[in-house]
Amino acid sequence: MIKINIKETNLKSNSYLNERTITDMIVIHHTGERDIDASAAEIDQWHKNQGWTMIGYHFVIRKNGTIERGRPEYTIGSHAYGENWHTLGIHLSGDFEKAKPTDQQVEMCAMLIAYLCDKYNIPTDKNHIVGHCDLMSTDCPGKFLYSQLKTIIGKANWYRYQSTPDAVIKEVITIQSNSPIDENIKLKIKALLDYAEVLFVT
Ligand SMILES: [Zn+2]
Q1: Residues, CB within 5 angstroms of ligand 1 (ion)
Q2: Could you tell me the distance, in angstroms and rounded to a whole number, from the CA of residue 49 to the centre of ligand 1?
């Protein structure tokens, strides 16, 4: 199984959370309304202010690609009305009706999906990895993220099945030789190399 870094946030629930017994779908969300780099702790506060027991999503992916823990993974989330009992919720910080997700968010989202699909034996396809808008009438996760969902599912399949340390190094070399090295590219390369390290040691 692939490994990823999840930053623990130790957010506390205000009441008892039920355990989820079935996990066969992953739902992708965005912040919406404002294109801000919201943390899991901030979202936890917003959701508590609405009277919820705690943050509704299981994961938050910040603009720099950091994956933060939201609601405990084994519990039923509060992110997709009527579908929470069998789904995991991933939130990418930003308003993707207005802005595009960062390269690091796309990459880390694909890695997280690969990890979760592997862990729960979920097929990595468009029937099981969906946008919030596939389940109900909403803009979420925003047109600039939703339009990348196919790419993200493709990348997740690569991370799940095709990636080897050699393949990751090749990918890094391709990125380095094709692109001017800006901060985004550097971070993407770092994420890939961190991932290669995980592959080498496991
Ligand atoms: Zn949503």
Answers
A1: 29, 132, 140
A2: 18
Helix (H, G, I), strand (E, B) or coil at 26: strand
Instruction: Mark whether 184 and 155 lie in a shared domain.
Output: no
Domain that holds residue 114: 1-162
pTM over 0.85: yes
Report pLDDT digits (tens) over 21-57: 999 999 999 999 999 999 999 999 999 999 999 999 9
pLDDT tens per residue across span 64-110: 999 999 999 999 999 999 999 999 999 999 999 999 999 999 999 99
Distance 29 CA to ligand 1 centre (A): 4
CA of 177 to the centre of ligand 1 (A): 37
Closest C-alpha among 59, 60, 67, 71 to residue 20: 71
Domain tally for the chain? 2
Domain boundary among 131, 147, 162: 162
- Which residue, 77, 86, 78, 60, is CA-closest to 7? 60
CATH number of the domain enclosing 46: 3.40.80.10
Return the bridge partners of 68, or none: 7, 60
